[in-house]
Please model this.
Amino acid sequence: MSTPSDSGASTTRLTPAPDPEVKGFLALLAARRAPRTVDAYRRDLGDLAGFLDRSPADASTDDLQAWLADLRGRGQASSSIARRASAARSFYNHLVLLGRREDNPAADLDLPRRRTRLPRTLSPGEVERLIQAANGTTPRALRDRALVELLYGAGLRVSEAMGLDRGRIDLDNRVVRCLGKGDKERIVPLGREGVEAVRRYLARGRPFLDRRHRPELFLNAQGGALTRAGAFLILRRLAAKAGLDPARVHPHLLRHSFATHLLEGGADLRSVQEMLGHADLGTTELYTHVSDARRRDTFFSAHPHARRRQRNEPHAQRSTPAGSTDHHDRGRPVNGLARRPDEPD
Model:
């Protein structure tokens, strides 16, 4: 087995020559998953092969447990370790299905517990500021406005928006037909403002960018297809113009905001799941916790018996039983509504 570098800080290692079993698995995966996902699986399985210093196809559960221990020793986050274990589990499932193995050694791995992190979102007011920052009449300004409206108005992943062809938006019926993970098509409604932004871009913006007769909806200044990196840069520039933290704003943040604002507006969970293209309802349920946290924040800031007292604010004169503490004066609501220390701001 190979060992980490002397510094102990490296999280990657040299890998042996590509294994035919791994190559076959990745080739099959490439037909069903996005290229970035395939690359991640390639890196994860390559790290396993490098640790074993041989083909991972015949690894045992003990080998895999030692690999996970090595990952922890290299300072890998729990989420990264869980992702790598998931890649190994999928690889061995593939071998079992082909009859190359009788068991999956990754099936019963002792994985570190992953702390569920709530998705971060923008408030409705912050979204409006971001959209207003994209106002303009130049071709690129019209494109940027259409991009923001589509990411927020339809909740698309950035890869879905970048892969969108012109013919997949039905402006008359106000729907978007996008290809999600696994090339699964879903139909998402688009609001009136989103439709108008796309209509203006198609009429007065895109014709001036389309120098190469590309089918993609979003084009860059040279006439090529807009990339994921280009979309990130556009949002960061708009965030700075809107007075938001550019490091905080990214395409997926608008998708998170889309889902959270829908649920806060009364949309049912199953409909939001379908619009987001989530295979598992539990993934969508995370956004209900975001809404709950926001409601708690609103309660803490708005209710007179729950507001946190400012330092220069005088103590309210209340009569309380001797030896007891008035939770209202301390700004801590009762009945289980107190904020836990690990809750996001």
About this structure: Residues 281-302 form the longest helix (22 residues). The chain has a mean pLDDT of 80. The CA atoms of residues 231 and 245 lie 16 Å apart.
